[in-house]
Amino acid sequence: MSRVFYASARARKWRHSDSMPGKLERLLASRMTENYFDKGEWVAVKTHFGSEGAHRIVRPVFLRIVADALKAAGAKPFVTDTVRIKGLDYLEVANRNGINHLSVGAPVVLADGLYGNDSIIIKAGEILKEVAVASVIHDASAMVVCSHVKGHINAGYAGAIKNLAMGGVSGRHRTCGWKCGRGSMHTLGDGIFKWDSEKCILCNQCVEICPLDCIEFKNREFTYNAEICWRCGRCTRVCPAGALTFPGDDLIFLKSLPEAAKAVLSTFKQHKVLYINFLTEIQPECDCMPAADVPLIQDIGILVSDDLVAVEMASIDMIRKQQPLPSSLASDQNIKAGQDIIMSIHNKPYTITIDEAERLGLGSKSYELIEI
Question: pTM for this structure?
Fold first, then answer.
């Protein structure tokens, strides 16, 4: 049975050690004694930089504590994520969201380069066949995965597995493009968009949200640059009229996530990856969207484990016990205490991802929760 260490978000005493930053310091001080990281070893701190308008990411104060703990253990950390929009723009977004060298106490780098195509092809499973793992993550010998737990319009639940699967894989590769990047998880086959001119209201939301500026309307006709497009799917999500779609399959997508995560983790030796799930500001949607809704539930706390599946299962179990917050999307949909909030909002069988991750040998759903 795997161990998952837990620190509650509640601060019951007016002292630093009872705050969430203080508790994280204690969690990591105990974990660093496990000798995950060697002196002088470069350690990737994988997180999500957020988006312009999406600010509910893992806060820089927590990333700083992770970096400081690694340095105290003699390691050399750097904070990283893969390109979600144009590389220089993404670094500016990170800086606006408070993630920079000064704030986190470590270099901030793009894992797949400024152009989002610095990646190494790694064999994956039956669905994906192969994926383009970001070169910096591929070459790192150790990693701490800092994940903001939240909802996700495709995955239902998004935590450490999604952080690895879509955040450890490049948007495209130099030779096979999006088909071996994270776009291969979003869509099927050729990934050709379907546009219904009769439904389209020409609101231009798809144009505005495209991270690569590859969509435009010429003479009131939808066009996009198929060579540049990453198939991230943001345009289809924001279309209010349902005029824009591309082929996909929920079951295949949910099973492809652990396949991609396993490919990313295959480049690391055993006991060289630590997982930290932040159950704070749990909003309905991914941090890659250009806005963040209010949290669905109250902050829960922080979970730490070296077992990917266990830390995800523990996170899900905790979320299921929470009451929906008033004036949230959960409240809007009249979700009651005791209901599965994530399932109720997105109607995605997200536990398939956890089951598949366990089947692929990425960890165990059986865990012991240890609260500090």
Answer: 0.94
